[in-house]
Amino acid sequence: HGSMFGDVPRGVFLRSPRIFVGGQTQVVSPVRVGFGAVLAAGCAVRHDVPEGRLHGEVARGVDRAFDPLMYGPLDRIFGLGVELVGNLWALDRWYELVRIPGVDPVDRLLYGAARGQVRAGISERIKRLDRVVARLPTSLERHRDALDGQPGQDALRWHRERVAEHERVLAAWPEVRRRLERAPGVGALPGLDGIAGAFAEARRRAPGVTYLSLVRGLDDAHVASGQADLRRIVEHVTGLAAELWRQ
C-alpha cells in the first residue's frame, strides 16, 4: 500500500519544511507523514506522523493466531489509497494548467512524460486496491464463519463490524473505481489559471527564467488561490468515495 509524505496542494509551491527520512528507516504503509517531520534512523514508522515531529518506533514482538486470508479494518487502506489518488489527480492538473503551458518543445516533452508517470501512479494505486477487493469475498466468508463459532462479545462485535465493512466496500467499489479513473470534474480553477498567467507574464519579461524561480516568485495571493484549487480537486475525489461508502 502507499504512504503519503506531505501533500500536493502545498508541496508544489516549494515552501513547506522538508521531510527527513533517516537511514534504514522502515515505513510500514499506509501512513501519512507531515511536512517538517523527521523519521529517526534505524526505526520503524507504523503510525501517522504529524508535521514537525521527530518520530521513530522500536521493533515489537508479536505472537498470536493469524489468518492471512482474513482482513482487518479497511478504512486506512482505502482511505489513504483514495486520498493518494486525489493528490495525484491534483498534480496532474498542475502539470496540465501550470507547468506545461509556455515551455519550449523539449521541456514540453519532458513534462508530458512526467505527467504520464503521474497517470501511471493513479493506475497503480487503483490496481493495488483492486487486489484487496478481489480477496474480500474470501475474507468475508472467514468472518462469517467466525461468527458461527460463537466467539466472545468483543470478538463478536469485531467480526460483525468487519462483515458490514466488507459488504459496503464490495458494493461500492465498482462505482468508486470508475470515478477514481476519471479526471475530477470540479469546474473552473481560477487559482491555477491565475498562476499560469503570472508565469506567462514572467516568461515574457525574462525568457530564460527557471521554473524554480517562477514558483518561488509567486505572491501569497497566488499561492493561496492555487492551493485552494488543488485542495478542491483532492476533496472532490475523497468526497465522492466517502459518499458512496456511506450508502
Assign an overall shape.
Answer: elongated
Taking pLDDT < 50 over at least 5 consecutive residues as the criterion, the unreliable ranges are none
How many strands, which pairing sense, and closed or not: the largest β-sheet? Answer: 3 strands, parallel
The average pLDDT score comes to: 93
List the keywords.
7 strands, two-stranded parallel sheet, 6% strand, elongated, 3-stranded parallel beta sheet, 61% helix, 247 residues
Structure characterization notes:
This protein has 247 residues and is mostly helical. It is 61% helix and 6% strand. The chain is built from 7 helices and 7 strands. Strands 2-5-7 form a 3-stranded parallel sheet, with no helix packed on it. The protein is elongated, with a radius of gyration of 22 Å. The protein starts with a strand and ends with a helix.
